[in-house]
Amino acid sequence: MRLIARAAVASTLAATALLAPSTAAHAAAPTCGGSAAPVFGTATPNTSLNAKFTSYGNGNTRLDDWTGGDSTYSVKLPDGRTVFGFSDTFLGKVNADGSRPLTVADGGTTPFVNNTFVVQSAAGSLTGTAHGGTAANPTALLPPSDSSHVYWAGDMTVNGSEIQQPYREYKVGSGDLNVTWDRNVLARFATSDLTRPVSVTSLPSGSGVMWGSALLRDGGYTYVYGTEDLGSGGKHMYVARVAGTDLRGTWSYLAAGGAWSSSESAAVEVLSGVSNEFSVSRRGNFYILLTQDTKDAFSAQIDTYLSCSPAGPFTNEKTVYNTPEGGPFGSYGDGDVYTYNAHAHASLTTANNLVVSYNVNSLDTVTGPTKDVYRDVSIYRPRFIGVPVTG
Prior knowledge:
The protein has about 400 residues and is mainly beta. Helices cover about 5% and strands about 40% of the residues. It has three helices and 29 strands. The protein has helices spanning about 1-10, 45-55, 370-375, and strands at about 40, 45, 65-70, 75, 80-85, 90, 110-115, 115-120, 125-130, 130-135, 140, 150-155, 155-160, 160-170, 180-190, 200, 210-220, 220-230, 235-245, 250-255, 260, 270, 280-285, 285-290, 300-305, 315-320, 335-345, 355-360, 385-390. The strands form seven sheets. Strands 17, 18, 19, 20, 21 and 22 form a six-stranded antiparallel sheet that branches. Strands 1, 2, 27, 28 and 29 form a five-stranded antiparallel sheet that branches. Strands 12, 13, 14, 15 and 16 form a five-stranded antiparallel sheet that branches. Strand 23 and strand 24 (about 285-290) form a beta hairpin. The model is unreliable at about 1-25 (pLDDT under 50).
């Protein structure tokens, strides 16, 4: 299926870069404000969240709701609900044997759209999927301007009574592997109606950075993290910020020497080897960057870095989990399956446990019902893990 292949490419283009980790990344753990660095324990699967999404995805109560997707960002609303933001999403039916019908585009009945929300109630139940169109003919929550473009989700934040979410717009050419980032946009959704954006406006896009890989509210600012994807040249992190909580405000960019500039072109690289999606969270005097390692091709490593500032430098790289699904020796025994785009969820994390998701996908080019994402719905679903943390 062409769009799954495109999603795979966009998520892993620079996983082919075999870059040596920087010396700074492996430096000793920093001491921030006189505090010793947090210590990470052995991560384990979050069986509760994994079971919740399995039950919801397999439910078949409705045939226009989520059965699998990637990205898997989340944000907690003031009323206690949690909204999960997905990029490419399967809707529809799951068969009794754990397979799904072909997509509509492949001659079947399964709707496949490029972005959705899944809503969790304040009580903790997954209650529904927000998409565009109708139940009979669902479309992307944020539909593209034309059939040659798609929108894939970035991180999410709350500003008053609305969700604000950056999206990356991609141009889709002919062939499975022809996907090119075009620009960044900001979509705003009223928390009272998540089925359609209130507005879609342009975000800075002039420097080739895909802004919105992660968002962090800290010290009166919202920090906006972005990824520059240079293919064989690797993936590189940049930092911007805006005062307050409204991403429509004036952006400034981390520039040389730690200064903040009003010019996007002045932004400087903070770290290499990050993924298209990651997270930055605060713990006491420390800032934790969590990302899937992209310094090696299709790496299974989920790594943390530490900093005393939300703008870095980020050092002390540690591997906290190796995903078991991918590669010929993975849990699927399938050389086409891989994992990507891990990030932590502030909306779900507790005092001593980071809740982390990562995506599972396949590069399988088989057509028809034996294709990985058709024969086994679990392949195109996120996995949640818990990373113990103390200090």
